[in-house]
Amino acid sequence: MAKQADTPWYPATGFFFKIEIAGITDTSENSFKEVSGLSLELGSEKLTEGGVNNYIVELPTQVNASNLVLKRGTLSKKGPLVKWIEDSINTDYSKPLELKNINVKLFNQNGNPLITWTFNNARPVKYQVAELDAMKNEVLIETMEFTYTFYKRLYAN
Question: What is the mean pLDDT of the chain?
Answer without folding.
Answer: 89
